[in-house]
Amino acid sequence: MTQTIEAFVESIAAKNSGESEFIQAVREVAEVIIPFNENHPKYKEANILERMCEPERVVIFRVPWVDDKGTFRINRAFRVQMNSAIGPYKGGLRFHPTVNLSILKFLAFEQVFKNSLTTLSMGGGKGGSDFDPKGKSDAEVMRFCQSFMTELAKHIGGFTDVPAGDIGVGGREIGYMFGQYKRLRNEFAGVLTGKGLAYGGSLIRTEATGYGVVYFANEVLKAHGQGITGKICAVSGSGNVAQYTIEKLLHLGAKPVTVSDSEGHIYDPDGIDEEKLAFIKALKNERRGRISEYAEVYKEAIFNKGITPWHAKVDLAFPCATQNELPVEDVRMLIDNGCIGVFEGANMPTTEEAIHLIREKRVMFTPGKASNAGGVATSGLEMTQNSIRIPWTREEVDSKLKEIMISIHENCEKYGRVDDTYVDYVKGANIAGYVKVADAMLAQGHV
Ligand SMILES: NC(=O)C1=CN([C@@H]2O[C@H](COP(=O)(O)OP(=O)(O)OC[C@H]3O[C@@H](n4cnc5c(N)ncnc54)[C@H](O)[C@@H]3O)[C@@H](O)[C@H]2O)C=CC1
Ligand SMILES: O=C(O)CCC(=O)C(=O)O
Questions:
Q1: What's the predicted TM-score (pTM) here?
Q2: CATH level 2 (architecture), domain 208-362
Q3: How far is Cα of residue 6 from the mean position of the Cα atoms in its chain?
Q4: In contact, 24 and 423? CB cutoff 8 Å
Q5: Terminal CA-CA length for the chain
Q6: What ranges do the domains of the chain cover?
Q7: pLDDT of the residue at 3
Q8: What mean pLDDT is predicted for residues 301-321?
Q9: pLDDT attached to residue 361
Q10: Which residue among 93, 96, 322 is best mutated to probe the pocket of ligand 1, counting the most ligand atoms within 8 A of its Cβ?
Q11: Residue among 121, 122, 120, 90 at smallest CA distance from 108
Q12: In this predicted complex, what is the ipTM?
């Protein structure tokens, strides 16, 4: 069996040389799906997994724009349309200097499984650009977004592909892109999600990924005879997902003690409370400053430059920044310090080796494709509200989000329960996500 998994991953690696993140994401899935296919020959015979590793389409384009000094600038942009078996392509746009084809293919691949888990009808895609919004003026970001959308508009649509935000793409960028799409098409359409509330956005979409992570963690803890109240938590990142993970942890009586950005992390032994969280939101969403400023204002906190937040003694860990930010040595430290659960808010934040150690030690662990699915699920709810032209209340959307996270949990448990005391969510999430897409692909013939 191991040989077969290796041979499969090698064949994908040979076709996608140098795409380390994409191959990492494929390997995680292959380790679960290849043994599963052995007992489900209809998927094996139709080469479903191999087909799923090949994007239906990739669009690569240049984005020319002019900065505030009048200099002509060029960035590279992509949209990976991975799989549309169960619905239009759906997935975020990332603006970050590290963006390349490998990263977007891994994200699009993960998105296919995640969107399938949401119970809604959405295929998987992802896009973005190596543009760095950091240090750019609003006018520069607007000009970039308008130029980016001028090309992207040719490839998307409410029934074709519906992008949203991701790292470096929040409400501001979505607004500029939506405005440009509307000008180009003369059409007010739900072609992007994460829109502002004044022009078709959904209540709770901003909060949804972080809230969903904590709803999911709560279900996992319950399934293992535990609760979230009183737990000390390490959270990484300080962007959208980190902020609303912290907010929901506070609602449920947990104590978050860390946040981070690419320069280092804050450890606050007194805990990050509502007031401190409001400071982080203003710092990151409005002033766009560095997280080190937190320790200048709150003297009880320490800023640890260049160090990951996984050194603190915590009960639970929530990696919410970026891929491969939680390596095996940090997982070892977390476990040695008594951590009992790792819940991914980011996409693929835990390295392969680290996941193997976590599963071997039977620490609770949930892959992002399950635990961070609340964001895209609420995007799906935004699409529904746009279609019926009726906005739902905050309570309605929040209760649907909660229901979806509970049903994702049930589905993961169905395929991932190992024994009375342990659920393997990596196995559960991958099989549950796969089966729906695989059945749709089989039904649709050679697509
Ligand atoms: N926004 C959403 O709805 C969803 C986001 N995600 C994932 O969650 C993660 C975070 O995304 P957002 O919060 O939306 O982005 P964001 O742009 O709001 O925040 C990203 C955060 O990560 C930090 N970061 C980036 N690179 C880092 C590095 N090398 N080391 C340490 N920190 C770093 C940034 O400083 C920032 O605090 C990403 O993996 C994204 O793909 C997953 C599901 C949905
Ligand atoms: O809301 C969406 O469409 C996309 C969210 C996303 O990019 C993700 O789940 O990683």
A1: 0.97
A2: 3-Layer(aba) Sandwich (3.40)
A3: 27
A4: no
A5: 28
A6: 57-187, 208-362
A7: 58
A8: 97
A9: 95
A10: 322
A11: 90
A12: 0.98
